[in-house]
Amino acid sequence: MYGSIELGGTKIRCAILDEIGNIVKEIRVETKDPEENMKDVVDFLKKNPVESIGIGAFGPIDVDKESKTYGFVLETPKKLWRNFDLLGSIKKELNLPMGFTTDVGASGIGEYRYGASKDKRSSLYLTIGTGVGGSYIQDGTLLQGFSHPEMGHIEIAREEGDEVESFCDFHDSCFEGLCAGPALELRTGQRGENLDKDDPAFDILAKYIAKGLMTYTMILRPHIIIIGGGVANKEGMIEKIRREFEKLDNHYIDIPNADEYIVFPELGNEAGLIGGYVLAKEALKEE
């Protein structure tokens, strides 16, 4: 059996998966105090022994194995979690092989191995929900340099006259600050799920999301882009994004048909846990 932990900004999922990746048992807890949350996770894994564990966590996190703070959550907006030794807190209680990456990295791995990009050499995975985050995989390997990508914080050119406050505490016009769920709420005064699908705010967000996707496309040229999260999942939203995306290229490069190039995750909400399962199996092999 393998353990998979998906640490999200609002909830934590911890699951036990069998040899072929079926989820056989799971708990979900609200993301609150890190010490309490990790106790719940560790207790669950002690009651349900596994051979290894894969972890996907909200960021920013330290993924550099040579760093003194490898496995730490860094300067996250979630203040209680800042500089918390996430990996160390689990290793202290469970002496097992562990794989560790971002939550979007784990989801990207899940989709690459078993989902929408399983037949592609490269894949970009993006979630647009409470925040915006992304990962890129080339020939089975997650792209990262001295740390993991921060795809939610690239600069997006605002539409003329758009002076709505950015949701991001650090940037005035980054992808996350303009397109995440809380940014939509700042723009409209309502949560996205309560807005009509034809609300003009979604047209603006579609333009901004398309700009972000075009930037990634020009730099990385992925074979496929997978987008998920509450904002992207709004009825009719992916169609708006595809239309805006096709307007931006102006026939400069040869891009696949947007309906096939920009797609939803095939694994749905299980992508992160499946990715964690892959990380756990790889960690066991490396021991």
UniProtKB/TrEMBL annotation:
Coiled coil: none annotated. InterPro entries: ATPase_NBD (IPR043129), Carb_Metab_Reg_Kinase/Isom (IPR051804), ROK (IPR000600). The keyword Chloroplast does not apply. Signal peptide: none annotated. CDD domains: ASKHA_NBD_ROK_BsFRK-like. It is an enzyme of class 2 (transferase). The keyword Transferase applies. It catalyses: D-fructose + ATP = D-fructose 6-phosphate + ADP + H(+). It comes from the Bacteria. GO terms for molecular function: ATP binding; fructokinase activity; metal ion binding. Its cofactor is Mg(2+). Keywords: ATP-binding, Carbohydrate metabolism, Kinase, Magnesium, Metal-binding, Nucleotide-binding, Transferase, Zinc. Its EC number is 2.7.1.4. Pfam families: ROK. Belongs to the ROK (NagC/XylR) family. This is fructokinase.
